[in-house]
Amino acid sequence: MNRGPLWWSLIVLIVLLVGVTIGIGSHTWYSNLEGSQRPVFTLPAMSSGKQKSIAEWDGKLVVLNFWATWCEPCRREIPLLITLQRQYEERGLQVLGVAIDSRVAIRDFAATLSINYPVLYGVEAAMDVAASYGDEQGTLPYTVVIDRSGRIRQVFRKELKRPDIEPVIRELL
User: Fold this and answer.
1) Are residues 94 and 168 in the same domain?
2) pLDDT tens-digit series, residues 28-70
3) If phi over 0 gives left and psi between -120 and 50 gives alpha, with beta otherwise, what is residue 166?
4) With contact defined as beta carbons under 8 Å apart, do 81 and 94 qualify?
5) Residues 17 and 43 in one domain
6) Structural domains in the chain (count)
7) C-beta of residue 120 within 8 angstroms of C-beta of residue 147
8) Beta strand ranges found along 70-118 (DSSP E)
9) Could you tell me if residue 164 is left (phi over 0), alpha (psi between -120 and 50 degrees) or otherwise beta?
10) CB under 8 Å to 151, separation ≥6 — which residues?
């Protein structure tokens, strides 16, 4: 049976429709995450290697940012996170990075950029934490804003831009 270009176009269209349907379904699932209590987790800190719990920042507005050194959009948004930490720290903001990478890779990278907020790290464990916060596809960068009472208020599944995140921070501080 000879399958011409029309046949293959139909197959591609079906695959695309299935992909879009899955994407829409996962978007709905993510939307349900907002308003829920944040999951508790512990990961090692880049600075000391000691385990740190997200609970250490209870009572603060937490911008939880999942990233990796090999992720170009992640690298581009880190200067914004550094600025936000500096600008809003005294009002109760805490940026918290979770690097899905090795300690050596992030330590050198963080030193180069002078990251001014805590960075936790791991590979499989960090991916599990990201999944517990709704990032089951492993999208990077991925950022979750957690209010002072520990509720997830906003999820960003893309590179952060100041006009998107700053109004959220101002409203919750």
Assistant:
1) yes
2) 334 478 888 999 999 999 999 999 999 999 999 999 999 999 9
3) alpha
4) no
5) no
6) 2
7) no
8) 93-100
9) alpha
10) 35, 36, 37, 38
